[in-house]
Amino acid sequence: MRSSTDRILTTQAGSLPRPDALIELNRSRAEGGIDEQQFHSGVNQAVTELVGRQRSAGVDLVGDGEFGKSVSQRVDYGAWWSYSFQRLGGLELADAPLFETTHEGARATEEVALTSFGNRRDRVGFAEAYADPTSGVEVSTSPMNFPVCRGPLTYVGHEAINADIARFKRALEANGLEEGFMTAIAPASCSRIDNEYYDSQEEFLYACAEAMREEYKAIIDAGLILQLDDPAIAENWDQINPEPSVADYKRFTMRRVEALNHAIRDLPKDRIRFHLCWGSWHGPHTTDLPMRDLVDLLLSIDVRAYSFEAGNVRHEHEWKVWQDVTLPDDKLIMPGVVSHATNVVEHPELVADRIVRFAECVGRERVVASTDCGLGGRVHPQLAWAKLEALASGAELATERLWP
């Protein structure tokens, strides 16, 4: 994975806004209105244009925008996760709400257990705001049918991931680029569905790790950078009601970190980056666990670079954590310095300020400026691209300050 000794590089966290034509392609495919050749031709063109647009906006380390992960409307918070439902064998759609069908004993080894999304502590605490369509609190309006594991997990997404890889590599070549990253869901987030087959949650977790490892290997074997998306490492905290002790939560989460490290065993760590966030929906996040309580777990994940939220108003102050943390010599950080959480486009001077703070903590060569989370499905496309341009401009200003 590229780093720089003479300037601040830029990247983004994965999801980028899908063009309306691509959303319509996904809808038509689901309804049987187009054949597979038409679909793939349209997605190929969209990804090639996307890579070129990232380059024009000033993004150095580009991604495929998660365009192979289907969405049917502009506002969609779940495609980064729900795509895995079609790539894993052993899952069946269920009629019951999430986490109401888990069979007896499946969570017997857990000190704490996840509740449904509707019973998150922030959702309960701000129920009036969530119920008011004029409040500005926004969640995805697209229905999501959650599956249940009712058989041995297997990876069945080879055709889909190979198509994603092939189109992205063509797009990189067409735009004169050699390096790009693709995202894949990590085991902790992948396993946040009901399990009726495995005898324990830990057994199910490791089954997810083994199955998804095939996707991780495919991306790396193709010469691309792998980004592991795992909001569950931080976000699960709010999805445990009542609130657990920090010690119990860290034990609960460390098992998920260990499963992830198991999944990427023997893979080249210098080609892997990890993304952590506290959930990307537009709503209150007053229950978020502080970064200070998570940073040791984050750094125990055996990868090259760490992406995390640092630009939104709930977490911007946490740059101070890195004053007290020793970042291992071979690691990079990719803090979010523009945010999905606001429609305000950040001023480049503010972006530069944020970058410089981190550089002064861990070293200028070890910071890659990024976005808080994926911008696709979270802010209007016009705003998303304006934010990426502000990111690039801010990185230039930070470079002038850090390499005078």
Automatic annotation (TrEMBL):
GO MF annotation: an example: 5-methyltetrahydropteroyltriglutamate-homocysteine S-methyltransferase activity
Record GO biological process: methionine biosynthetic process; methylation
Keyword line: Methyltransferase, Transferase
Name the record gives this protein: 5-methyltetrahydropteroyltriglutamate--homocysteine methyltransferase
Transmembrane regions listed in the UniProt entry: none
Species of origin: Actinopolyspora mzabensis
InterPro entries the record matches: Met_Synth_C/arc, UROD/MetE-like_sf
SUPFAM superfamilies in the cross-refs: UROD/MetE-like
Pfam families, per the entry: Meth_synt_2 (PF01717)
Domain Cobalamin-independent methionine synthase MetE C-terminal/archaeal residue range list: 178-381
